[in-house]
């Protein structure tokens, strides 16, 4: 999948951009896990063999090794299939199908851990977080049979329930669980129970889509279809307060209310952030809103939520589902625009509705209807366990040598070697700067054997490719 960068100004945070391309329509390119640089060129791509498979919540995290207690940067993501009509209609649209899992990869792009859910629940694409305790905190889902007639649904129906689960990464043992049905009332859902008729009788009453752990162990849980965010006491499981929904403990100031929200996160100073989808399939009387990043200040004395910062897009966007708002080092905010093909970066002050270009530093568009559930900007150093790749092709009286190394973040230049035999190679191009994912280097050497060596910023050889022969 190739990305078009439409805005690129000084002041962006450093790091690559982490995307998991997918679509419910006609995919352009392949699904998978993709790191892009600011120019839109790929840095690393792990494609999936089928567009029915997808990755989600692809990002950099810190992994504390349970044996050595040493911390290292890793890549994590969910992999599986979602219930997307017409492929799957057995569950509500967007629900995880059985068979998914979470992956943890090291900086050499080697698999460290595979994580699964417990209690017969399926690993859910919405959230997978590593803790400093050497554990994984995530959302897991499964349909629970239930008579839904009192809610307006079928008698032989089911609720798509969610659990917050925490497992020990060393043993896989379940350490903690919080069950939505034990604490939330399905009658408060903004998703009609009658919608179960299109998903084999399963009602998506809650749609838990994020969990964030606060510094004191509290959990901030977002339930999209309840229009609510919950502060949960971890030990007792009790809901300390509810923000939004039919039983909100807070009132809202101007531009502070939200609908179908995603990615609720604790922020310093009694603040929380989220992505407010704000649109689409709203009940009568609820005003349509543009999708935007939202930071709220909570006054616990007056029980009022006020809008602290907002982040709108130009042109205005309506994301029916998905999205995230990421705090970046230095104060910028990174917005993944959910089920629209954009991602953006803004300076901290943000903007207001109708002024979405203000404080915009970076904006990029994925092709056609491709999107990513979340998009992140993260610092990452990748040193692949596999070597660079080379190819050579005749071009008139010259040879063009192509060099690439999927996932290497330290390669700054290439050296080209050539020779009449694989054992008689010598340097024919001492140094040429890396230009995007694949660098093309023209040489007068006839070869026919060629090799490339990746160079770091100081000109040191990182690794050499296998020797290849020239093609015509």
Account of the 3D structure:
By secondary structure, this protein is mostly beta strands. It has two domains: 4-378, Neuraminidase; 389-471, Immunoglobulin-like (Sandwich), CATH 2.60.40.10. It has strands at residues 4-8, 16-19, 32-36, 42-47, 54-64, 71-80, 101-105, 111-115, 122-130, 135-146, 157-168, 174-179, 202-203, 208-213, 219-223, 228-232, 239-244, 251-252, 262-267, 271-276, 292-299, 304-311, 324-327, 333-336, 342-346, 360-365, 376-378, 389-395, 398-404, 413-419, 426-433, 438-443, 449-455, 461-464, 468-471. The strands form seven sheets. Strands 28, 29, 30, 31, 32, 33, 34 and 35 form an eight-stranded mixed β-sheet that branches. The protein is elongated. The mean pLDDT is 96.
């Amino acid at each position: 999948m190739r990305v078009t960068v439409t805005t690129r100004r000084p002041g962006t945070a450093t790091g690559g951009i982490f995307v998991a391309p997918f679509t419910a329509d006609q995919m352009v390119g392949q699904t998978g896990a993709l790191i892009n640089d600011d120019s839109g060129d790929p840095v690393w791509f792990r494609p999936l063999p089928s567009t029915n498979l997808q990755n989600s919540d692809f990002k950099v995290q810190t992994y504390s090794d349970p044996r050595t207690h040493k911390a290292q940067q890793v890549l994590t993501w969910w992999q599986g299939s979602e219930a997307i009509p017409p492929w799957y209609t057995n569950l509500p649209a967007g629900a995880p199908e059985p068979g998914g899992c979470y992956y943890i990869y090291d900086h050499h792009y080697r698999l460290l851990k595979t994580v699964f859910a417990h209690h017969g629940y399926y690993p859910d694409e919405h959230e997978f977080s590593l803790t400093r305790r050497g554990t994984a905190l995530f959302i897991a889902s499964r349909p629970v049979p239930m008579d839904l007639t009192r809610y307006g649904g079928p008698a032989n129906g089911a609720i798509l329930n969610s659990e917050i689960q925490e497992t020990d990464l060393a043993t896989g043992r379940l350490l903690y669980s919080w069950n939505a049905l034990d604490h939330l009332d399905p009658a408060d859902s903004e998703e009609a129970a009658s919608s179960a008729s299109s998903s084999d009788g399963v009602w998506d009453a809650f749609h838990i889509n994020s969990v964030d752990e606060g510094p004191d162990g509290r959990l901030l849980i977002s339930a999209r279809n309840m229009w609510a965010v919950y502060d949960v006491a971890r030990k007792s499981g009790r809901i300390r307060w509810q923000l939004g929904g039919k039983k909100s403990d807070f009132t809202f100031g101007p531009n502070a209310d939200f609908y179908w929200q995603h990615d609720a996160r604790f922020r310093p100073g009694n603040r929380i952030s989220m992505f407010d989808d704000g649109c689409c399939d709203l009940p009568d009387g609820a005003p349509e809103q543009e999708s935007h990043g939202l930071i709220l200040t909570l006054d616990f004395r007056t029980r009022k939520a006020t809008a602290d910062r907002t982040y709108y897009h130009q042109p205005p966007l309506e994301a029916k589902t998905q999205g995230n708002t990421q705090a970046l080092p230095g104060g910028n905010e990174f917005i993944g625009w959910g089920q629209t093909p954009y991602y953006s970066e803004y300076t901290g002050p943000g903007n207001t509705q109708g002024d979405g270009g203000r404080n915009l530093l970076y904006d990029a568009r994925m092709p056609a209807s491709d999107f990513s559930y979340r998009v992140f900007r993260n610092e990452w150093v990748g040193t692949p366990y596999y070597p660079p790749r080379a190819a050579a092709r005749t071009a008139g009286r010259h040879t063009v040598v192509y060099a690439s190394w999927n996932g290497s973040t330290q390669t700054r230049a290439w050296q080209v070697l050539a020779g009449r035999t694989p054992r008689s190679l010598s340097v024919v191009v001492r140094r040429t700067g890396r230009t995007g994912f694949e660098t093309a280097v023209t040489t007068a050497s006839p070869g026919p054997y060629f090799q490339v060596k990746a160079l770091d910023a100081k000109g040191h050889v990182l690794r050499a490719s296998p020797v290849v022969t020239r093609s015509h």
